[in-house]
Structures are given as C-alpha cells and as structure tokens.
Write a structure and sequence with these properties.
The chain is an all-alpha fold. It is built from ten helices and no strands. 50% of the residues are buried.
C-alpha cells in the first residue's frame, strides 16, 4: 500500500489537517488567539469561551470539514476504503500535531467527527448522539468526547463489519483520549470547566 501516490496522499491529508481553524476563525472575528485564554486549546469549545458563537461554529465546521475532506478526497482519487480511512487518520494527526503550530494543536474532537463521517455517516451520527447525551447531562465537553471516543471503535466495527477500519478508529480514539489526559485529571478532581463558562 505504501506507494508514492499513497505517501503523497497521507502527506497532503496531514497538511490539510494541520490548518488551525480555531486561530483562523478567531482572527476573522477579531478575537484573541484561543491559546491565550480558557483551556488554551485551539478548538471550538475553547473558542466558545470567547463569547463568540459564530467563531466557535466556524471552528467546529472547519475542523469537521478537513477530517471529512481527507477521506472523501482519497475515495474520489480511487483509493480503497482502508487507504481513505488512513488519510482521515493522517488529517486527524495533523490537527493534533499541527506543523503550523510547531506540532501542537487541538484535541481532535471535531476533526475526529469529520473523519468518522467520511468513513460512514452512521458512525459519526451515533458518536455525535453519545456526545450530545453526555454533554447535556453533565455539561462537560471533555467527558462527552471521552465517552464518544470509547464507543467509536465498537460502533465502527459494527457498522462497517471491518476489523481493520475498527482498528484505525481505535488508534484515532486512543490519541484523542491521550490528548485529554489533563481533562481527565480535572474531571477526577472536580475542577474541569463546564460548557458555557467564560474566559479565565
């Protein structure tokens, strides 16, 4: 599978995933760099803490889109389902370790959702449903993301009936969970910020 065209696909997907929409949307709305307040994370949840719902929605849409685009483009170029899913994973890695942010980036929730939508919209909708239930019940975005990440590989396996695709989603979920290590600590200590909280 490691042909020159496939390697170029992964590199392109990584670069697309590296585009920091949180910073782009904040600049467009005349806001501070999201790394300077709240959790310091360049993601939609932290942008929402700026008070600008428009910037947060644009960030969410952009991060989802780049994950979906990587999978869609790979499929459109004739790559098989597994290669397309790996392109999505490369875009997700680009978001988390952005080359434009010195290999730092967001936690990957929206980008992951986009990748799942590219693989199969049913997987994305099911995970989004889990996220919504948990966030509405707890008001903790991180808890919702972690719960959705935990069930995503199982849902992927059931929907696609492919152990390989489930394994790719498992890797994605593992990275997402690792990126939430600090959030896990704050959840356990009761100091995690809830959705709707303002800047610190």
């Amino acid at each position: 599978m490691a042909t020159p065209s496939f390697i170029l696909l992964l590199a392109a997907a990584y670069l697309v995933g590296s585009v920091p929409f949180a910073i782009v949307s904040s600049a467009l709305f005349g806001l501070q760099d999201p790394r300077s307040y709240g959790s310091g994370n360049p993601g939609a949840t932290n942008v929402l803490r700026s008070g600008s719902k428009g910037a947060a929605v644009l960030t969410l849409a952009g991060d989802c889109f780049k994950g979906w685009l990587a999978v869609w483009a790979a499929t459109a170029l004739g790559f098989d389902t597994v290669a397309a899913a790996l392109a999505g994973l490369a875009a997700f890695v680009g978001h988390v370790f952005s080359v434009f942010l010195r290999f730092k980036g967001g936690k990957g929730v929206a980008a992951a959702l986009g990748v799942l939508a590219g693989i199969d919209p049913i997987i994305a909708l099911a995970c989004l449903g889990v996220w919504l239930v948990v966030v509405l019940a707890s008001r903790y975005s991180s808890a919702a993301a972690l719960t959705a990440a935990a069930v995503a590989p199982v849902i992927a396996g059931l929907v696609t009936r492919s152990a390989v695709l489930a394994a790719i989603v498992l890797v994605l979920s593992a990275i997402l969970t690792w990126r939430h290590a600090a959030n896990i600590g704050r959840l356990l200590s009761g100091t995690e910020e809830k959705v709707g909280g303002g800047k610190r």
